[in-house]
Amino acid sequence: MDLVLICYQLTSQFPKTEIYGLSSQIQRAAVSIPANIAEGKGRNHLGDYIRHLSMANGSLKELETHLMIVGRLGYLNLSSG
């Protein structure tokens, strides 16, 4: 859940031209991660849970890619330290 809040805070700093572009995509991918984990946990079948964990992992990889693009565009300094 903290990741979702961080992503919303970061995207609020983006240029307004990205409201319907990267900002939206980053927010949706970030929200999708805990949502899929919660939905899978709520299922009564292990296979469903595993499938939702896989979808959450896919959303995480999508978010990672979006953040790499953001870094290359110079919207944020993503280096640590």
From TrEMBL:
Pfam families: 23S_rRNA_IVP
InterPro entries cross-referenced by the UniProt entry: 23S_rRNA-intervening_sequence, 23S_rRNA_IVS_sf
Protein species of origin: Cyanobacterium aponinum (strain PCC 10605)
Superkingdom: Bacteria
Signal peptide span: none
Protein name: S23 ribosomal protein
